[in-house]
Amino acid sequence: MLASNLSAELHDDQAQKVDKYLHQFHLSDKTLMELSMRFRREMDKGLCRDTNPTAAVKMLPTYVRSTPDGTEQGEFLALDLGGSNFRILLVKVKGNGDQKVEMESQIYDIPDLVMRGSGSDLFDHIADCLANFLEKMGIKNKKLPLGFTFSFPCLQTKLDEVSNFALLLPL
């Protein structure tokens, strides 16, 4: 019974109604395997230079050449711009194989006027938020590596390089 995991409070007739509703979302192993194979084909198509333009799943290179091995350490800043919020994180990575990560973060609103305004206004606002965060964390004079994640179209040509970004935001 699918509804059995919900709550013991459900009466039998309610549980049957929930089961009937949820049953239509149940996929057989055969269907799941077919979906998996189709998804894999589309990913492969997206990875191929010749078929990428027509692929349903676009695949882009990450330029990341290795995965973390647990020896990484240090302090880093991360900026995450998406929707109407902007988040700044201070990430402390303890190496020595412990894989321990500590994070402190702050979310800043982005006024609609700024989000719909010029690129210069947006990045001025980001700089003001970053200055505020650095002051609050007591690290304004510290030089730290910084990563920036955003949901705007751009052309990434290297791990740490984006081009044509200025063409996408009005300055």
Automatic annotation (TrEMBL):
<keyword id="KW-0067">ATP-binding</keyword>
<keyword id="KW-0547">Nucleotide-binding</keyword>
<dbReference type="GO" id="GO:0008865">
    <property type="term" value="F:fructokinase activity"/>
</dbReference>
<keyword id="KW-0808">Transferase</keyword>
<comment type="similarity">
    <text>Belongs to the hexokinase family.</text>
</comment>
<feature type="domain" description="Hexokinase N-terminal">
    <location>
        <begin position="18"/>
        <end position="161"/>
    </location>
</feature>
<dbReference type="InterPro" id="IPR001312">
    <property type="entry name" value="Hexokinase"/>
</dbReference>
<dbReference type="GO" id="GO:0006096">
    <property type="term" value="P:glycolytic process"/>
</dbReference>
<dbReference type="InterPro" id="IPR022672">
    <property type="entry name" value="Hexokinase_N"/>
</dbReference>
<protein>
    <recommendedName>
        <fullName>Phosphotransferase</fullName>
        <ecNumber>2.7.1.-</ecNumber>
    </recommendedName>
</protein>
<dbReference type="GO" id="GO:0005739">
    <property type="term" value="C:mitochondrion"/>
</dbReference>
<dbReference type="GO" id="GO:0006006">
    <property type="term" value="P:glucose metabolic process"/>
</dbReference>
<dbReference type="GO" id="GO:0005536">
    <property type="term" value="F:D-glucose binding"/>
</dbReference>
<keyword id="KW-0418">Kinase</keyword>
<comment type="pathway">
    <text>Carbohydrate degradation; glycolysis; D-glyceraldehyde 3-phosphate and glycerone phosphate from D-glucose: step 1/4.</text>
</comment>
<dbReference type="GO" id="GO:0001678">
    <property type="term" value="P:intracellular glucose homeostasis"/>
</dbReference>
<dbReference type="InterPro" id="IPR043129">
    <property type="entry name" value="ATPase_NBD"/>
</dbReference>
<dbReference type="Pfam" id="PF00349">
    <property type="entry name" value="Hexokinase_1"/>
</dbReference>
<dbReference type="GO" id="GO:0004340">
    <property type="term" value="F:glucokinase activity"/>
</dbReference>
<keyword id="KW-0324">Glycolysis</keyword>
<dbReference type="GO" id="GO:0005524">
    <property type="term" value="F:ATP binding"/>
</dbReference>
<dbReference type="GO" id="GO:0005829">
    <property type="term" value="C:cytosol"/>
</dbReference>
<comment type="pathway">
    <text>Carbohydrate metabolism; hexose metabolism.</text>
</comment>
